[in-house]
Amino acid sequence: MFVATVSSGVLVLVGAVFLACAVEMVEALTIVFAVGHTRGWKSAFEGVFVALVALVALVAVFGPALVQIPLSTLRLIVGGVLLIFGMQWLRKAVLRSSGFKAKHDEDAIYEETVAELRASGQSVGRDRVAFVMAFKGVFLEGLEVVVTVLTLGTSAHRLGLAATTAGIALLLVVIIGAIVSKQLSSVPENAMKMSVGILLVSYGTFWAGEGLKVSWPGNDAFLAFLVVLYTLVTWGLVALAKFESPQKKAAAHS
Amino acid sequence: MSKKQILPIRLLKGFAMFWWDFLVGDTPELFIAALVIIGVIAGLRGAGYNSAAVAALPVLAVLSLGISVRRAINSSKKK
After folding, report:
1. Are A91 and B69 a contacting pair at CB < 8 A?
2. DSSP label of A124
3. Is the pLDDT of residue B7 over 80?
């Protein structure tokens, strides 16, 4: 029983951090590839390096500080944040799956970034535009990962595991990106985002309840029930939204 | 307002903007919903209704998500 309850919490934590990190890094990789292919790799790598250092510094500063907050307060705050964040991800994923919102298209983003970089003209010496673009891409996408890692990791008292999982996801995306040497447009981003949304809302519900001293039936095992519940609800919402989707209506008229 | 703000103020503004975008962004209804959910559950727990809190928390989250999706679909149809 103990092993089962610990496993469900750990699995949700690892799954949420891994998928969130992978999705965000796929998006960052697209920008880095656009910068590297258009303006040269030196400035792109410099931007990536500085962004990664800044993100690691944020974890190093805020991680230990968060641990000092009383656990029930921390879980309530984290639960609230994850609830909002997870519902935002789920909402977007439902709207994308049902055709009410355009899916994230890495090829289009790549072309858009390349056009923007070409329009800004070549720099003499250090390529400031390329550096800033690569830095912003990695830092902004990485910030969401940092928030996910810090909130989930500290609340579950598994910051090390959360950080390691994020590191593995980052490494995996970088290795795959380097092998194929292009943006990862065939990654099922929406399905991954939907999974992250489900896991974040599940954790958010659980931690918010814990922070308010709600006694969950089965303790940590209740997380697994929440994951199943939100998965079913998401499928239901997608199915309902598809009835009204513009694509379905267009198909019916043709 | 001067264009060149001092660094700590710029950083502070950037930090506040990040959290605003992160938590509120284009879905203020979800931010408000989370606050309402926490308030309701705190009230139920304060009154000693644990079972009601266990049931209400996920139900309210599902309702909030459903309402937010509905709103998005409606506004998408108006466009």
Report:
1. yes
2. S
3. no
